[in-house]
Amino acid sequence: MSESELNALISLLDDPDAHIYDEIRSKLIAYGDQVIPHLEHAWENSFDHLLQSRIENIIHQLQFSSIQKELSDWKATPDHNLIEGALIIAKYQYPDIDYQKIKAYVQQLKQDVWLELNDNLTALEKVKVLNRILFDIHGLYGNTKNINSPQNSYLNNVVETKKGNPISLGIIYLAICQMLDIPIYGVDIPAHFILAYSENGEDALFYLNVFNKGSVFGKHDIDRFLKQLDKKPKDSYYRPCDNLTVIKRLLQHLIYSYDNLGYLDKKEELEALYKLL
Fold it and tell me: How far apart are CA 197 and CA 125, in angstroms?
């Protein structure tokens, strides 16, 4: 379809006949992301509220379909790169997110940590290096004042504001560890997200709370925490989990956050993304 034909089709989106609108909408969606710039141009040059509203709806559907495809493709990758997965989730709220800017920031963190490491460091000493670089020098911290804000889960926002929740901070921490072959993993514990230092990928030497600047604790602290929640202990609450589980936890927290705020449309769309995983 030529540009003039496409623009003519977009101009008909304000037709009061719902059947005609549905037909035009279906045609535009079938063309995919390439029509978004044309739709945005039409929105900017219109004062018709109905037309603008319909354009916004179509753009959102096109962007959401793109995210679904990206997430499905990500799931099919063997390594389930954490930064890639978290960026796809962030794209849901921030369609124009600059992937390269975030990746460059994470690479800088990794470089700063690498410069401080050597083969003679113990596990605890490596963690001290990580904590000093991430939390003291780069200033990342847990948003204790508004922990359930959805913004804490979007990686670009965490990088910009330096504050996040246990999962988003954990993703950054884990990504750096994976780049540097430091055996630290996520732990899928209820109502929180923690990390484990595990040299065999199964049994934890100790645990980390990134929400509290990487503080170190032991198994008995998890026992106490589960008792407070009235949860029966399970092996999965103490053992490392994979990257796919970490991204699922990120989505679960966003679903919980939007549900609490009453944004049911966002909750339903994020549930659809969760089902893809």
Answer: 12
Helix (H) or strand (E) holding 268: helix 264-276
- Owning domain of residue 40: 3-64
250-268: pLDDT as tens digits? 999 999 999 999 999 999 9
Rounded to an integer, what distance in angstroms lies between the CA atom of residue 193 and that of residue 211?
9
57's tokens: 């709806």
Q: Which two tokens stand for residue 95?
A: 């369609």
- Cα–Cα distance measured from residue 14 to residue 138, given in angstroms and rounded to the nearest whole number: 50
Q: How far apart are CA 227 and CA 246, in angstroms?
A: 23
What tens digit of pLDDT does each residue of 137-193 get?
A: 999 999 998 888 999 999 999 999 999 999 999 999 999 999 999 999 999 999 999
Tokens representing residue 105 in the block: 């920031």
- Residue 42: its pLDDT value, please? 82
Decide the pairing of beta strands 240-241 and 184-187: antiparallel
Helix (H) or strand (E) holding 244: helix 243-261
Residues 60, 87 within the same domain = no
As a whole number of angstroms, the distance between CA 238 and CA 252 comes to: 19
Q: Is residue 76 part of a domain?
A: no
Q: 185: how many CB neighbours lie within 10 A of its CB? A: 22
Percentages helix, strand, coil for the chain, rounded to the nearest 5? 65, 10, 25
193/251 Cα distance (integer angstroms): 13
Identify whether residues 92 and 57 lie together within a single domain: no
